[in-house]
Amino acid sequence: MGVNTRTPLIAGNWKMNLDHLQAVAFVQKLHWTLKEAKHEDDSVEVAVFPPFTDLRSVQTLIDADKIPFALGAQDVSAHDSGAYTGEISGSFLSQLDARYVIIGHSERREYHSETDEIVNAKVKAALKHGLTPVICVGETADDLERFGASAVPAEQLKGALAGVSASADIVVAYEPVWAIGSGQAATPQQAQDVCAVLRGVLASALNDDAAARTRILYGGSVKAANIAGFMREPDVDGALVGGASLVVDEFASIIRFQKHVGV
Ligand code: PGA
Q1: CA 163, CA 237: separation in Å to the nearest integer?
Q2: Ligand 1 centroid to residue 201 C-alpha, Å
Q3: What is the pLDDT of residues 157-216, one digit of tens each?
Q4: How many domains is the chain built from?
Q5: What is the CATH number of the domain that holds 220?
Q6: Which of 52, 63, 126, 235 could form a disulfide with 131 if both were Cys (CB 3.0 to 4.6 A apart)?
Q7: Is residue 1 part of a domain?
Q8: Distance separating alpha carbons of residues 192 and 176, to the nearest angstrom
């Protein structure tokens, strides 16, 4: 599929952690840590995904201090506005300069019964409001045993992309559910195998150009000690990091994966 010109993306999914005061302190400390390490900002894109109530504070900080992190939200409503108690419109997020939004995380699929149809509607809503959806797919341990690793994520991605334009700016995150928060990450080879299948889905559901340009992240127990192995794989373009994105030194080290031995 030609030369890989995809900029690596390291994304921190904070889930329901860090209030707005803690969020500001965390982002400042992460920025200082990377500055002190003389990290080259252009070599990798960094995105943080705080809870909704933190977004305004983090946006203000990033803007005032010219911190080169992209901002993302952890979910978005499929609707634009109206009587949808508790939901957040994509237009509110884009007005806060959010660039990304996570859609279809396994915790939303499991605890909020999000189906592929809901995920698809949210992807379209995000795109409509100028946000880049980070579409999460992944198999459970049971799926893995019954269908192998790639069948369920491939179906989920197909469902998420129904009716989406080939020119749309999207990110895909392959997150095996059994690897999330378990300390038991997939191997780089397992991640590569599924990410390659998902790139094939991008080619058939969108087109070859979209497949070549779209970043596919791996997620599930990523930490400083294993990031380099994933990033060496040709179809893994970054990571969606949960627990380890809440520890400044650990997340800074993940961002600096290019400095790790052998990469
Ligand atoms: P984890 O979470 O890194 O804590 O396994 C990843 C995720 O859920 O996005």
Answers
A1: 25
A2: 23
A3: 999 999 999 999 999 999 999 999 999 999 999 999 999 999 999 999 999 999 999 999
A4: 1
A5: 3.20.20.70
A6: 126
A7: no
A8: 12
